[in-house]
Amino acid sequence: MARGENYQTFYPTKNLTLLDAKVGQPNGWVSKDGMWAAVPSNGRKFAIVHNGEVVHFAKNFECAMTYIKRESKKKKNQ
Length: 78
Description:
Number of helices: 1
Strand order of the largest sheet: 1-2-3-4
Helix content: 10-25%
Number of strands: 4
Strand content: 15-25%
Radius of gyration: 13 Å
Shape: globular
Mean pLDDT: 79
Low-confidence stretches: none
């Protein structure tokens, strides 16, 4: 993948409606290395995925990003 290219498009989905978010919420987020993702789950919550496994559900996008940042720091310190 070329530098400067949008890495989030590297993880495409065939059913785009699965990632539809509510108004004001983003479509999700994927880390650059692909290890972490925040994906809209039921229209209200975000599923947090780590290594292909759902590890947590957050009530909104901001809480999902806070959880991912906290857990990724824990993983780096171990």
